[in-house]
Each structure stands twice: as C-alpha cells, then as structure tokens.
Specification:
The structure is a homodimer of 515-residue chains. Chain A is of the alpha/beta class and 515 residues long. Chain A has a domain at 7-101: Aspartate Aminotransferase, domain 1 (Alpha-Beta Complex). Chain A contains 15 helices and twelve strands. Chain A has helices spanning 7-12, 30-51, 64-69, 85-97, 117-129, 140-157, 172-187, 191-194, 213-220, 241-253, 276-285, 343-348, 381-414, 450-470, 498-512; strands spanning 107-108, 165-169, 202-207, 228-231, 257-264, 289-294, 318-321, 334-338, 420-422, 433-437, 474-480, 483-489. In chain A, the strands form two sheets. The first copy, chain A, has a seven-stranded mixed sheet, with helices on both faces. In chain A, strand 5 (257-264), helix 11 (276-285) and strand 6 (289-294) form a beta-alpha-beta unit. The longest helix of chain A has 34 residues, at 381-414. Chains A and B meet through helix 1, helix 2, helix 3, helix 4 and helix 5 of A and helix 2, helix 3, helix 4, helix 5 and helix 6 of B.
Amino acid sequence: TNCPTKPVSISFVNAFPVILLDLLPAKNGEEATMQFLLELVDILTNYVRKTFDRSTKVLDFHHPHQLLEGMEGFNLELSDQPESLEQILVDCRDTLKYGVRTGHPRFFNQLSTGLDIIGLAGEWLTSTANTNMFTYEIAPVFVLMEQLTLKKMREIIGWPSGEGDGIFSPGGAISNMYSVMIARYKYFPEVKTKGMSAAPRLVLFTSEHSHYSIKKAGAALGFGSENVVLLSTDERGRVIPADLEAKILDVKQKGYHPLFVNATAGSTVYGAFDPINEIADICEKYNMWLHVDGAWGGGLLMSRKHRHKFSGVERANSVTWNPHKMMGVPLQCSAILVREKGILAGCNSMCAGYLFQPDKQYDVSYDTGDKAIQCGRHVDIFKFWLMWKAKGTVGFEQHIDKCLDLSQYLYDKIRNREGYEMVFEGVPQHTNVCFWYIPPSLRGMEHNSKEYREKLHKVAPNIKAMMMESGTTMVGYQPQGQKVNFFRMVISNPAALQSDIDFLIDEIERLGRDL
Amino acid sequence: TNCPTKPVSISFVNAFPVILLDLLPAKNGEEATMQFLLELVDILTNYVRKTFDRSTKVLDFHHPHQLLEGMEGFNLELSDQPESLEQILVDCRDTLKYGVRTGHPRFFNQLSTGLDIIGLAGEWLTSTANTNMFTYEIAPVFVLMEQLTLKKMREIIGWPSGEGDGIFSPGGAISNMYSVMIARYKYFPEVKTKGMSAAPRLVLFTSEHSHYSIKKAGAALGFGSENVVLLSTDERGRVIPADLEAKILDVKQKGYHPLFVNATAGSTVYGAFDPINEIADICEKYNMWLHVDGAWGGGLLMSRKHRHKFSGVERANSVTWNPHKMMGVPLQCSAILVREKGILAGCNSMCAGYLFQPDKQYDVSYDTGDKAIQCGRHVDIFKFWLMWKAKGTVGFEQHIDKCLDLSQYLYDKIRNREGYEMVFEGVPQHTNVCFWYIPPSLRGMEHNSKEYREKLHKVAPNIKAMMMESGTTMVGYQPQGQKVNFFRMVISNPAALQSDIDFLIDEIERLGRDL
C-alpha cells in the first residue's frame, strides 16, 4: 500500500488475497474479515490524509465517456461472476481517485463542504449498526438521540421549553415538502382523506430567490407550480414584505386561498435572509402558515453574533434546518421542526397496525415511523449528535463565526480590487460572496452592451472548466434573473484558511487573465 | 481495549487522550486523526465480530426512561461544552452496547437484516467521500455507477436493452410515491402546473395487503386517501383480478378516473405476489398505469428459480425494488425504475438555472438532480455496486435461494408440529412464514370462541416481550384483518442457518409454554 507510516497496514498487507467466501458470516471468518476491513481503512485514512493536503488536487477530472470506457483497469460494469477481494480494494481506491475531494480546503463548490472527522466516525458507526429509525424496538438509542436533539434545536429556535414536533428527513427539499403538507393539514385536514378537491384553490408564496424545492413541492403535492407565487426581492435578494401583502390581496380577490409563506433564511445564491418578523406580521394578519427555510442559514442560529439575522424565527410555524450544510455534518442530515406538537403524526399517520403494534411492552409513543412519509428511515442523527457532543454548542458557534469571518475577508479583499465587480452591494448576510471577475480584455467595454454581457456570461464557465481540468480548486457559478453568470463563493469548510481564499483569487486571475 | 487479538489496537492504545482540536484540519493533525479513527475502528470491528457470535445477545433491552436517565454514565443529553475524545469513544461504545444487533444470525425482526461486510465497506467509503448525487461535477464516479446499475436492473426486469429511467430514492415509500407522481404526470401533465383541479377525480388501486405507502402517497400528493381503493385478496393475500376490474368499473360509473394500479410483489406480512400478468391485462384494457411494488420481493428477480413469481413484470410501467431488503444491502438503498425514458425529468424538473448550469464543459445530461424530488441526494449506490462486484449476479442469486430454502425448512418444520397453526395454507411465496404458536393451555379450546381469540391475541406480544427482555432472538408479529396477532418470520439474513431456525422455535416454545 501507499501508506508506509501507518502501523495498521504493515501487519496484514501480505496476507491477501482472501476471498469473499472467507468473510463473515463464514465459519472462522473473523480473521479474513478483520484483514479486509483494515486494508480498506488503510485506503480510507490515506484518502482522509490527502484530502487535507493542499499539495493534492481537489479532483482529477475526466469526462463521462472516459470513465465509462475504463480508466487503467477501473471497470464500472457489473457482471455475473464475482471479483476477487483484492480487486474490490482496487475498485475502492479507484473510486476515490476519480472522485472529488469535497473536504479539501479549496473545495468551495457546494453549500455542503468539509470532512469533519467526528462526523465521519459517526457515519462509520451508523453504517456498522445498520438499523432503521422506524421504531424504538430496533433503534432505541438513535430514536432517543433524535428526540433530544430535535428538542434542543427547537429550544435554539426559541419555542417555549423546546416543545413541538419534528423529524430528520433525507434533505432540505423533503423537509420543505413536509412544511407544505403540514400547513395544508392544519387548515384543510380533510384534504388528507378527500384530496385537493376538498379545499379551495390554495396558494403558496415564496421568494423569487428561494430554493426551487417549494415550487417542486407545490407541483408534487397537487397545488400546481402556478399556484406557487414568487415574491419580489430587494437588490440584496430579500423578500419585500409589501410585495407579499399585495400578492396575498391579489390572490384573495381572485377567490383563491393564501395558505403558506416560505421565508428563506439564507438563500442559495445570495445568502439572503428574508425579514421574518415583517413576514410573520403579515402571516398573522391573514391567518397563514409561516415556514422558515433555514436549510442553508440554520447554522447561524448557533452563533450569538449572527443569529439576529433570524430575528422572529420563533414566530414561525415550521423551520427547515440542515446540519449537513453550514454545520459541516456529513450528508444527509436535515431537520423539519414544527411548533405544534402532534401535527406530523396527524398529517401523515395511516395507523398501519401491521407495522406499529400498540401492544408492545414499552412506551410506543417513541415509535416515530408513522409520522414520516418514509417507512424505513436512515439513521441521520448519530453523526450530528456525536459532533455536538465533541464540539459542544460553542464549537459549532466558533465554526460558524470563523466561516463568516473568512467570507468577510474575501469580501474586503475583492470589493475594490481591479477586475472585480460585486453582484450586490454591502457585506453579505451569509458566507455567500457573489462577484464577477472581469478579464482585462473586457475592462474597458460598455457594461450595458450586448457584446459585453455575452462575453462576461462566458467568463465564469470558462474559468470553472479550467479549474476543474487543472483540479486546483472548485467554486460555483450561475446566472440570476437578468444577471449573467457570476461566481458564488461560499465557505462552510472548516479546513479553509485565509490563504485558501487568497489562492482562489490568484487562481481565478491566473486562469481568467487571457480570456 | 477489549480486542487483544487485533494488530491495530496495540500500537496506539496508550496514546490517548488527544483532543478535538488536535484532529485534522489542525496543523500536524494527521497522527491524532489516525489514532482516533483507528481506535474507533477497533470498537467497530469488535462489534462486527460480536454481531456474528451466537453466544452474544441480539439486544440488551432497556426502556426509554432507563436510557434517558443515563445508563452507567451514558448520557444522551447535549451540552454547550465539548467532551473529550476519550469520552466520545466511550459514547460510541455505549451507543452500540444499548442498540440492536441487526446483523445477528438470530435477528429476524425486519425485512432488512444482516450485516454484509462488503456493503459495510461500501458505506464506510461512501461516508469518507461525503458527496452528493446532485451532479456529475461533484460525484462523477457515483453518478455513472448509478446509471449503469439502474440499466442492469431494468435489463433484469426485462425491458428491452435495459432502456428506461430511474433513480435511487431514500426508501420504498418514496419510490412508491414517485410512481404515483409519474403516473399522474403521464396522463395529466397539466397537474404539475395547475394542480389537481386540472384533472378529474383520480383513483388509485392497491391490495388490502399492500404496503401503506401507496395510501400515504395518495394522501400526500393530493388525491386523498379515500381515493385509494383497496382490493380484495385470496386467502394467500394475492389480489383477485376480478375484484380489481369490478372496482374499476364502479369508479368509472361514478364518473371518476381510474389512474393507477399497484401490484405488490412480496407483501409485507404474507410475502404474497399479486398476479402481475392478469393485472397488466386489466391495466391495458382500461389504459391505466401499472406499478409493481417489489420493495420486498425485488431480490427474487435475481433468482432463476424464483423469478417466475414476477411473471409479467416487464409489462409494468414502473417498479420499486429495494436492494436494502432481500439483497442485504445496508439501509438505505431503494430504486424506482420506470419504463419510459425521460419521464422522471418531465415530471419533476423545475429547470433551476442557478443549480444546473447548462454551460458546463461536460455532457450535462449526466446531471441527475433535477429529475429527483430531492435536491441534495445521499450516495446510496456505491455499497450496492460494490456488493454486486464482489458477489456477481450469481452471488445474489445464491443468497436469495438460500433464504427461500431456509424459509421452506421452517415451514416444513412447523406446519404439522403440535402447538402451531399456519395463518395461510401452502408453501409461502416469499420467505414470510406466518404462524400462531398455541400454548398448551389454549390447545383444547374452541377456536371460534371470543375467549380463545382474546387469549391467542396476547400470546405473540407476550413471547416477543420476553424475547426482547432476554435478548436471545427477535421476530415480528402483527394482526392482519380479522386474524389475531401472529408471528411473521422473515429470512433475509445471510448469517442465518437451519440451527438458528431451530433455536427460534425452541425459544418460542420455551417462553410460551406456560402462557
């Protein structure tokens, strides 16, 4: 193996090959199993070590057809006959080799970045336990951890005594879908049994900058995407409350029923926080459900310095909060939190007696399966619980504050720098720093000309393609409304330092200089 | 540590404590990180070893209040301040100690059992890679593995050249939900934008023995659970096609629109397979969508001996198939497979330009995010792909055949044994063996008497409670329709042997003898 310094690899490296049938549950399979797992761990820890090494690439890019054709013996095709375990370990090494190091200090491409060692340990344990959140019976410890953690999150939101409801779901889109379902159940419970025809035409409201999952939920749940009304925002991407009220009145005048408002707390592109208190006033006035999508912003609730951006969140009826984003918990870890206790079960339970037996010897109120839209449910809680234990609330706070400081560092560095233009003015509310890099060849041009816009639109994709080909760093780009492609830098990676920000800027300039 | 035979533990056991801040990404954090991870691996491999050891308990049962009060220093509460890494490792050990060994050869409680070593290795790697199925850009290898594996599964279903569509979802309930959404989109695409009011009253049909997720999908997606019509079954739990046709005609006569039939291939309790070909005839006649819920039965498609139970499956429009059940893949791993190519994207895409940039340097048709109802999506494919590589198709076949043989062994053993009654006659179609154990005190009683039924109803829960308290084995029970509580034995655990079946029967008799 390529890891000479680690004690584990030496002791069994020559013992291979073992074969699949030697592994547990085979009789006397312990030794072979331990050998195999430790050889794998050697590969994994080597990957972990390299992930944090700035001298390694973030990725070794290949096109789909290249990987499909087979890279140096890495064959993705499945066959009828088994491979040797030695080949399996080679496959594992190759899988990592041709992947993307999302924990690399210079990987800034997604809202979820970083590789938290405690979170990783939590995932390894979770997969070893290989159980299901379905009932207390088969996941007693994890079910209680989920309950305690959700309560803690509700306390942090500010709901009295942390009372309420909630569940971990397979991601923010599903959590947001839950919020729409619950809102509908609260106001029109008969839709559960009779369908949408039991309700008037229901309308959902969300920012034009919000995540597409609200619209997707509207389509999936039978509202129709046209009944998801997009709200105008200010230049910073925050919903304009007056626009919300005007659109509610418009909908009412048409005879439709305004049901639900989503306030985004940390928008995907700008990192904008909608003004929750003002939106809550309007929701109260019109008796509407207020959901706060804090999938991305939620982590800021842990920071005494930044949680004011969530001012009013305790007035929300439901909140989405993804620890797998800003808090660095491995994917997947998303919570939907609800202020009213019992409403999740009311909304979703089908009382399947063959799955949830009421006559067990323990308190079956701990069986959570029937309040989910899932049946089997992956254990997403343990890694998060373990990280919370290891860091304490203060550790999460330090991480959040550090990331926001780094984002401020980037903002300060480029806002007056030659060749940069900010997409919106002012210090970003979250770690999102949105900017155009203007190559020298474009700097003298008229900004409003079609030619300039067309050329600028291609700059970010071109630089990004070169970044990926060279594998040095990764950062996202996208257009937004009338604005042509710009870079969206986000920082949630605990490994990132100021020097990595400097590197990114140098790299953009190196790659973009001659465009 | 308690694992003296393993080489890894010896070299660093005395090096603790390191502290959290010593771990990567800390400068020079490699050594501490490796120490911590290897100490964890020591705990995990020790757990793996014990899982397969029949002299250990399946579980060490405690009531919720006991675990909440804290067991010998195992404190579930979260706090502001961090714990030491030494305590973190103790927490990991305790989490496993008070959990349930779902891979134990005598754990028969769920449809998902077993601990496949290759699958475990796959999960460890997946969590180390910690990425997201969202785009090719950040998960190139995994995205291709998913594509190839879905194609292979479609070939096995029997769709020409394996063409079609599909995605891995977070479980069978979500996969079934997809099928309903796609069916609606196929026949009434305008519901996506205009909502359910753009369609007539739509009706879904599914067996009274089917999984509750179809009804749940009906409620969630705006059909209403009353518009999910339950079909009568024969005494073996299989849908009666004539009943389906009669109910379709009844619905049509009322002016509603029959949209969708779910045929269950392996029902949760009886393991029944609905007659797909006869149902397909009816679906064709009335121009309806045919979904096959093979969440539990899907594995049988891998067996030349047993796949005839799926006869007609190639006529389905969509199929749910959970490798995390009968095929022993770690949770979560569920696929929704669709015959018509492109329809998933048609149904779910919102074309969010800020998330899926069309101007990338690679072929963006590999970006799968917009066809999912999720945004971020956990990598569920790798462990499955790796197991397939290691076992080959033939290895899955052997596993399936072995489990069905074991179930036949159990059936043969108890069908004429004193004190047992089968819930339905004949060899089970799947590994589900459903039976009552009749304690000696009940054997002379009139079976139709209320007293007998009430007493028998309590037998399985009582035995199960004693099993859990003693921790020797676990098997499920439930009532079904008018039938009082009975045991449902299922075998998907690759570690189970005939002697474990014998043990279960002995244990039921030991615990139930004096009831």
